[in-house]
Amino acid sequence: MITQTKLLIEKQQNAPLSLVKLGQLYGSSKNLAIAELLNKNLLSVIVCPNSDSALSVFKDLRFFSNNEIDIEILTDLEMLPYDLNPPIKGLKASRSEGFYKLANRDIRVLILNAQNLLWRIPEPSFYTDDVKLFKKSDEINIDEIRNIFSVNGFERVNVVNFPGEYSIRGSIIDFYSTINRFPVRIDLMGDTIDSLRQFDIETQLTIQPIDECRITPVDFFSKTQKQIDFFKENFRNNNEGNHMEWPLYQSIDEDYEINGVYNYLPYFHEQTVSLLDYFDDQTNFICIGDIEEPLKTYEELIESRYLDFQMDLQPMISPDQLFFKYKEQYKKIMDGNTTIIHENKVLEKDFIENNHDVNPISFLFQKKTEQSVLANIIEFKSSNNLLKILISIPNMLKRNSLIEQLKDFDLSYALIDNWAECLENDHEILITGEDIDQGFIIKKYRLAVLTEKDIYGFKRKVRERKELRDPEAIIQNLKDLRPGSLIVHRDYGIGIYDGLNKMKIDDIDYEFIKIIYANDDLLQLPVTQLDKISRYIGDASDEKTLSKLGTDQWNKISSKAKKKAHDVAAELLELYAFRSIEKGKTQSSDTEEYQSFVSDFEYVLTRDQAKTIEEVMNDLSSHKKMDRLICGDVGFGKTEVAMRAAFISAMNGHQVVIMVPTTILANQHFQSFKERFEKWPINIQLLTRSQSIKKKKEIFESIQNGDCDILIGTHAVLSDKVKFNNLGLIIVDEEHRFGVRQKELLQKLKHNVDFLAMTATPIPRTLNMAIGDLRDISMIMSAPESRVPVKTFVTEWHNSIIKEAITRELDRGGQIFLVHNKIEDIKSIAESIYKIFPDIRLEIAHGQMKEGNLERIMMSFYNHDFDLLISTSIIESGIDIPNANTIIINNANLFGLSQLHQMRGRVGRSSKQAYAYLISPPKNEISDDAQKRLEAIEAVEELGIGFMLATHDLEIRGAGELLGEAQSGQIQKIGFSLFKDMLSDAIKALRSEKDLEHEKKATDININIPALIPEELISDVNLRLIFYRRISNAKSKKELEQISSELIDRFGYLPDSTQNLLEITHLRNKATALGIDKIRFSKEYGRIYFSENSMIDIDHMLRLIDEQEGYRLYPDQSLGLKGDFTDEQVRKDKLSEIISYLTMN
Known about the structure:
Blueprint: E1 19-23, H1 29-37, E2 44-48, H2 51-64, E3 71-73, H3 89-103, E4 109-113, E5 121-122, E6 132-135, H4 142-151, E7 155-156, E8 165-169, E9 172-175, E10 184-189, E11 192-199, E12 206-210, E13 212-215, H5 225-238, H6 247-251, E14 272-273, E15 284-288, H7 292-309, H8 319-322, H9 326-334, E16 337-341, E17 351-353, E18 358-360, H10 370-383, E19 388-392, H11 396-406, E20 413-415, H12 419-424, E21 429-432, E22 440-442, E23 447-451, H13 452-456, H14 471-477, E24 486-489, E25 493-505, E26 508-516, E27 522-526, E28 533-535, H15 553-581, H16 592-599, H17 607-621, E29 627-632, H18 638-651, E30 655-659, H19 663-676, E31 684-687, H20 693-704, E32 710-713, E33 727-733, H21 740-749, E34 754-759, H22 764-771, E35 776-780, E36 791-795, H23 799-811, E37 815-819, H24 826-836, E38 842-845, H25 851-862, E39 868-871, E40 884-889, H26 897-904, E41 915-919, H27 928-939, H28 946-957, H29 965-974, H30 976-992, E42 1004-1006, H31 1021-1033, H32 1037-1051, H33 1056-1074, E43 1076-1081, E44 1085-1090, H34 1098-1107, E45 1111-1113, E46 1119-1122, ...
Parallel strand pairs: 1-16, 1-17, 2-4, 2-15, 3-4, 7-8, 15-16, 19-21, 19-23, 20-21, 29-34, 29-35, 30-32, 30-33, 31-32, 33-34, 36-41, 37-39, 37-40, 38-39, 40-41, 42-43
Antiparallel strand pairs: 5-14, 6-13, 8-9, 9-10, 10-11, 11-12, 18-22, 22-23, 24-25, 24-28, 25-26, 26-27, 43-44, 44-46, 45-46
């Protein structure tokens, strides 16, 4: 049994500060060697040539060190030298956490990118001297807390979601410290901390109580007056002229997030230091290869960017002030207690080669079937005379598949979690789910480590991360109101929401929603009736949109709309009933072939992807025809879902057609499908307009005789010459991009054929069908783990901004899209770029080019033959170039929101930070709608948000195309939201065969007690409005109890008025179920009015009148009651007692 694998020599004890160089450590054996070098009692710093290398070392070390040592990786800010754009909030917070731990000697192993050694940073004391500790029972007031957060760079928000944020709501303070896993909620009792609790970001609810929590700086700056004054003094001393002319100097008192502020970091501190100054003399340095070269390259980049930008809009600080010289930093590393690890054999005399004969894995197993993979492993084990093989397979499905096959071979195997278990285990095959970067062989110990790439030729590239937003939550938040928004009241019509208004009536506090109608008439709507309003979505350009109070105008409009909704509902139900009885092609996915196909997927599915695939598989295996829409943001994995559906259909003997809107996208899909299906006997053909007549004829024949299994193409696939032999599945990408004629032809093709549509931004009609439960929808909202949101800027065209955007991308070896949608002057844009970058490699592409030339340019861009593509909006869909991470969209105001979203989706398809620049004329030169579009796309950076953007677009441009022009008039008159509600009600009524006119209306209840959420509890108007809506829409006691618990958790003790609101809502719900129209209660009198369709048993009510005093039945069949109800609780109890009695029949 192997018990140890010492790869390294022991260092001389008498020479603690010595340089050791090791060579011939192939693959991940170098990280095994590092694990053996680690000293649990001393800090070890591993310096890597780049970020990718640092991440690989980090993952490997966790495995090889048996998770016994705390290992940290210093997060890169992903900023270039002299970058004008601030870092992402999450990266900034993560990096601050690393510096805090370093300064406080709380790290044993630190992994970092070498370029971090050149930046000047604050002294360690910045992270140690002024750290604030909050503990239970501490005496502190709100003003002190607010100042602590401000000084440490925290941002005040309404709801805390990210590290570095805080909020104050009465006696409740939420904050997210950079050094804590969860945010913390402080509950004050007066000026004393009564409790500290961790809470969950998603639910905002408590996880568990804690005893203490520290506040540490979020950034390299603290917002103290001393630091601001120090900056100003340094700025004046280093720059001549009128300093008030510089934007940075003018704004520094109010805003630390000014573009480019990091380029002046030394001005904020009396002294700046190197990262090396955070380490003591006993620190062990381990360098991955020769780090001198990446340090030198980074210094050259610093000098180059300084020269590029020193004549920019504001003065630049010199490189010597902002960075250290690479030679100085490199010398310090080499003079320390340092080990240099090389992979290759080194012949220099001062290099020491390991004597255990570590060899690389120099080949890939050629996968045919799972059995041949195992045969290859057995042969490899035998030919290398190995005792054991460790196989790293992070993907659970692939791992389980291999284990099942192992059972058929005479090989012992075991699952292990770390390197120690590997050494101690006697089994021949060991399998781990940990992600080891590269394989290697240690001949002396007859041990090999294999990775997925060694076995299958590829490696799973990403893992899922937690969803950023719950789709249901997004749908609910679409209804959030802002002052100035048009809203529609079911009874009074369309008005303007003007905020909340608190009023005192008869000494009782009430809160109302202010709605302004035509002629500036004002309606004050009680917050208890919030369920009657919704956001108006329609054509807001007409001033006549606002309804008039005191007329029957709205009643007429509403009645017509209800009738139209009823007619539309009947048509839709007939259409979808027909579709539901249509038969699809029953196709099973429960086959070995499908499982093998799935195992070839190079990525790990996100949760939403897996759920969507399961839904599609269920559709295909059922007798019912599939009609499903997959809505997923750009690059979130919709294509893999389509591939799996196509595979099942083709392997079951059915033909598949995939229709896309552009030739470029068709070509890209064709290439992707060919690569993905290359091991399977599936004939895939491409049909586009650019093909020769002869080629098209061959394709037509192969389709008709059944030789073609999968056809990919543009609308050319709808040609009458395309005659399918046995069509089983239609897949359409971005269906809304096709014209009316294409959609009509598509409808004919869909009869008794499974249909799958995919979109990144659903159009209004599609969106409504999805929400209205009239079409199956799958939402892919979760992003791959490594993806980060695209940072978006709306700006005018300035050469300095264009220069910065392009330079940043070129400096990191990336590529750039520049979209200009006017073919007639697109060459002038190229000339403008050449003036800034005379030597840049660029090409122009647009739709009027010959198709062959266009395809050649696009493939050249894909192969990185040039750096900048200037094109029209033809790149809107179908261009997948992970190396392109900057897009500049000229005249962005002329594009629709869906187009902007799609074009922005061309970048940000890798782990790198991506940037989108939306170039637009000044605000006063563009339309209001264009301004709204730009604001929407800039505001929504969160990944997976196409669903929200679709609704933004719907609000901006109106809902005319929702159900066709015939219905557009009614929709415009009452708004999309209300029409959708009416349509939904009509569908329910028709399905249940109930009369829509007899629907139950919510009881109007007023018992003259305060029922509201006071500002002292929730100061933010929008957040208060959200809770009013949630309470108003709650239909069960359980829902109300959950809301009550959440309010207490998030905002503290509930005042009587909020308790009243919850109780009255519960009583209203019970009264509504009984058919009670209205309830009025005062200190001496109560009255209950019943609707025509009331559920009350009249005999039961008469018994109540006979048995108890004070009750009276009026001629209008209303129930009256006299008594002493001065006490509010007595009043509530009496009403509850009456409703409970009437409920018992």
